[in-house]
Amino acid sequence: MADALLQTFAVRKEFGGLVAVDDVDFIVPEGSIVSLIGPNGAGKTTFFNMLTGVYKPTSGRVIFADEDLTNRPPHVFTQRGIGRTFQNIRLFQNMTALENVLVGMHTRLKGNMFEAIARTPRVRHEERDARAVARELLEYSGLSHKDREIGRNLSYGDQRRLEVARALATQPKLLLLDEPTAGMNPQETAEFTTFVGKLRQDRGLTVLLIEHDMRVVMGVSDRVTVLDYGEKIAEGGPLEIQKNERVIEAYLGSAAVTS
Amino acid sequence: MRRRVIAGVGEGWWALLGTFGLTRARWRELPRIARRAVKAVLWLVVGLLLIAFLGVWEWSALAIAAVVLVLVVPDYGRITVRGRRVGRFIVPAAVLVLAATYPFYASSQGDVSPSMPQLPIFGPVPQMSTMVGMAVFSIMALGLNFVVGYAGLLDLGYVAFYAMGSYTAGWFASSQFSKQNVYFGAIGVTPGLTGFHFSIWLVLLMAGIATAVIGILIGLPTLRLRGDYLAIVTLGFGEILPQIARNGDNLFGTGFNLTNGTGGITPIDPPGFGSWLHHHVGLPANFLTLGTNSDRAFFWCALILVLLTIFASSRLRDSRLGRAWIAIREDEVAAAAMGVPLMRTKTWAYATGAFFGGVAGAYYASYVSGAFPDSFFFQISVFILCMVILGGMGNIWGVIFGACFLTYLNLEGLSNIGGWLNNHFGPGGSDFELWHKTLDVPEYAYGIYGLILVIVMLFRPEGLIPSSRRAAEFHEGVHDQPLYDAAA
């Protein structure tokens, strides 16, 4: 197996008395596509939020590219190369598509406020290049000619695409997608699945996705991890997981296993 | 209720016009310029009639109307020169020219020019001293706009920055520290005067930087909070700093007189350009020697400061930092996840806002020649916030309009209105006596501002001249749900 790009050791999150994520050890090998699945309320999104610094784990460690990022603020995770999308779309609703992507490039640009006021040649070039890159990204994500559209006015599918474009703008090594196909119709879902595969090929990205649609999961993943009640109950290749008794039990109830 | 009122008035209006053959559909078919011209002419005619019958008529009113017409009607925004949209600068440039030449056509010998018409109720056009106040408060409102308008952080303690700026001017351009004797480019100071005496232009910069530092110090602990909590804490700091000013004449019982207590620091040195520039370029050596013309000089310099503030505002808004501010305002969690460092970015907004507050405070201190603790109450914070909200959060022109209008009301307008009301309806009034004791309208200033704010919030929550983005937010809302430990 390739080296681990992201690794967690006994990561745990408690909200008051509720253990949302219970000592999960987890690995995302470099260059792979890993899926995180589990029934509703299994703690997937909480776990995700800890992988991006939005939540701080109660205990345990998060290691990314051999660096311990536990307890660092979210923007450090982004700087080091973790880009993400949100389960409920969280675009900057009143900014244009282009501006959304430009915000994503924040950590990759350098101009400080004094240069911005003086608009030095360096800042001018940087801004121009940034805009060009942002337009390219929009096009790559299937949003050509929508750069001036206000985020809120985009169609649902386009908003999802814009979220991905914005995440790509942070120049991630690891892309975290939180239920990217939620609300998509089968055709859009199929397109998106192809797109994720393309991301790995074109950009050498490692992808971690939370997904409910088993066709997507089984179609693209190299590895699947299953969470239930905050615990990791299974891990392995897609075929293995499909046959795993504990997984079937978690999804369909124990009756499904015994019958 | 608001929708019903507006719709009701609108329907009635169109029904009336329809009887004359002008239906809504026909009106819509007219080109935009024609519609704007008709509207502008109608309003101007109403205004001129009001001046002619209820105010004081001067023929210059026609000239004013003509200028307004020329500025308002054509669609300047579309004018391009070699693909660059230079047209959008035409109106601001014209307004700037009108403002800069204001002392020539609207004032004479330090008083309001008799050739200007007078509005009913509001009375004469603003005096020069009011114009200086309007410019200074424009700077302050633009400063607060960085915090409230761009970054979306509710700051109820902005007066602290105003106070800090004023006192910095007090410390470095007066005889407050009588044991010291340091001169650096000071103008018009009697030789042998003790204390720090730095050139006011340098003091402005020092005040800005000192206030920005205070802004960062206040910001570091407070900006981790969100929304209402932040507002309360800033309110606290807005009270603490002026309290220190009020009680700082014997700091920690050491006998060290930092702020001269309730007496305030006065006099503060006036600005000026020194004798060398006076002889060679003709700039005034010292503003106070100009006599009745000194307000003019103060006004022009304030105007230049306003221009610099506008420049910095618009450049920053369109920069990487400005985008980050707006992103934070729209969705803090998403902004953090996109790599925007929340604390640092918010602190920059705070420091930038504080900087301009400090500069404005120092300049005003030099203008009124003193830093008095009585001018730094909580009301001022709310007053400046009102300017930003009334004009339109996030929009430079809106904020300036709000600042000018409210400052005018505060310094001159309300007492003019009061005078008019008393003359007509007060004791021995010319129309009929409604009340028998002179009404002191400025007394009710904050009640009136509150009322204005309530009306604006009801009918136009995005402000009078909103930024398009802000308008959308008010009507569609933003979905910024907090996630617990996202503050970092």
* CATH H-level superfamily title of the largest domain in chain A: P-loop containing nucleotide triphosphate hydrolases
Domains of chain A, number = 2
Q: Which shape of chain B, going by the Cα principal axes?
A: globular
The count of strands of chain B amounts to: 4
Number of domains of chain B: 3
Biggest sheet strand order of chain A reads: 6-7-8-3-9-10
- Biggest sheet architecture of chain B: 2 strands, antiparallel
Query: Which CATH class of the largest domain in chain B is shown?
Result: Mainly Alpha
Neighbour order of strands in the largest sheet of chain B: 1-2
Estimate percent helicity of chain B. Answer: 55-70%
Determine the oligomeric state from the structure.
Answer: heterodimer
Mean pLDDT reading of chain A: 89
State the helix count of chain A.
Answer: 11
Shape category of chain A: globular
CATH topology of the largest domain in chain A: Rossmann fold
Q: End-to-end distance of chain A, in Å? A: 36 Å
N-to-C series of helices and strands of chain B = HHHHHHEEHHEEHHHHHHHHHHH
Summarize this structure briefly:
Helices cover 41% and strands 24% of the residues of chain A. Chain A is of the alpha/beta class and 259 residues long.
Would you write up a description of this structure?
The complex is a heterodimer of chains A (259) and B (488). By secondary structure, chain A is of the alpha/beta class. In chain A, 41% of the residues lie in helices and 24% in strands. Chain A folds into 2 domains: 1-81 and 174-259, 3-Layer(aba) Sandwich (Rossmann fold), CATH 3.40.50; 92-171, no CATH class. Chain A has helices spanning 44-51, 74-80, 97-104, 113-118, 121-140, 156-169, 186-203, 214-220, 238-243, 245-252, 254-258, and strands spanning 4-15, 18-29, 33-37, 59-64, 67-68, 82-84, 174-178, 206-210, 223-228, 231-236. In chain A, the strands form 2 sheets. Chain A has a 6-stranded mixed β-sheet with strand order 6-7-8-3-9-10, sandwiched between helices. Chain A has a 4-stranded antiparallel β-sheet with strand order 2-1-4-5, with helices on one face. The model of chain A has no long low-confidence stretch (mean pLDDT 89). Chain B has 488 residues and is mainly α. Chain B folds into 3 domains: 1-30, no CATH class; 31-100; 121-480, ABC transporter involved in vitamin B12 uptake, BtuC. Helix content of chain B is 61%, strand content 2%. Chain B is globular, with a radius of gyration of 25 Å. Chain A binds chain B through residues 49, 52-56, 73-75, 78-79, 84, 86, 90-95, 99, 102-104, 106-107, 109, 111-113, 116-117, 119, 123, 127, 150, 152, 166-167, 169-170, and chain B through 311-312, 315-316, 319-324, 326-327, 330-331, 333-343, 348, 352, 469, 472-473, 476, 478-479, 483-486, 488.
